[in-house]
Design a protein that fits this description.
α4 packs parallel to α13. β5, α5 and β6 form a beta-alpha-beta unit. The chain contains 14 helices and twelve strands. Strands 4-11-10-9-8-7-6-5 form an eight-stranded parallel beta sheet. A two-stranded antiparallel ribbon has the order 1-12. It is an alpha/beta fold. The longest helix is centred in the C-terminal third of the chain and has 32 residues. The structure holds ligand FNR. The site of ligand FNR has 24 residues, from α2. Pfam families: FMN_dh.
Amino acid sequence: MEDEPVNIREFEERAKQVLPKMFFDYYNGGAEDEHTLRENMEAFKRIMLRPRILVDVSKIDMSTTLLGYKMQSPIIVAPTGIHKYAHPEGEVATARAAAACNTLMVLSFSSSRKLEDVASSCNSLRFYQLYVYKNREVSATLVRRAEKYGFKAIVLTVDTPRLGRREKDIKNKLILPQLSNLEGLLNVDVEQKGGSDLEAFASQTLDPSLCWKDIEWLRSITSLPIILKGILTAEDAVKAVEIGASGIVVSNHGGRQLDYAPATISVLEEVVKAVSGAVPVLLDGGVRRGTDVFKALALGAKAVLVGRPILYGLAAKGENGVKSVIKMLQGELELTMALCGTPSINDITRKHAQTEGDRIRS
Ligand code: FNR
């Protein structure tokens, strides 16, 4: 029998062993030189922790809230596409695992299971991630279905007016399955011109004209809170608050869109300062350890989303693998909190992290 993976890196290795190359590359790859993909992780490594000692850490409470919803920990399942590449049960397995860990899941627009099936499979807290298509009625229909089936917020992804150039998918000629939630809604002819299906599909569907005024349109069709995912600058964070967003996700799409976009952890503070507490700021990209979660919280994130590690867990061991990944990150965060002398999430402050900037200034 194979040993249990002891960290996310080992889950990644396991996923690589079991998945066909085309699917592993789709999950793991990034845009162009994959510089941003690597930097997301490297930038975390350049931040050190400032532990405080002789604090009673006999009880650690990782619980927190988001938009009024209680969460067991500040670790959230990020929206990622096509979980059926990893496991036949796809997003249903992921949702069940998230529910078992009392973890919020954001279901991707590019889900390979119907949102109705995901909703009825378990009782988890769930948000719905949206892309706005050229055919607005497709997106509007999806929003209405998400609302009806108990999704509590819309996470609008705003960093994808066009698809980033993912060279591994192009080389592999990635085959895109029918996206379950779009059945009957889209009449798109995916014609591969030597690239990946995904690229051809995205260029026919995504609306590159989407801009700030369109958020009004989205608000007019739903009463759910709207979170904007894919903000990397103070300027856009301020605009997001002005137009009434209920939250912001500092994200570069896991390095899959604009290569040389900055590592998310390196711009988190800029965004947090600009927003000055008006709405919760979340972060994703490169979170692979409990210490990464802790660093993001110390720099002002309310919570983090985790993308690829969930897919590694799903590929390695289905629903149980996703549970193991979530529990592993939660366990690592709990230990980090104990070793840093922060028994609750509110105890984690800016002073518990030391950035490169701090080292230069001191
Ligand atoms: C994504 N991501 C993504 N984001 C989104 O808004 N809608 C989507 O459909 C997808 N699909 C998707 C597929 C795959 C395979 C990956 C890896 C990522 C981006 C995702 O939500 C998140 O921003 C990143 O995954 C975070 O980076 P890490 O945790 O993977 O490093």
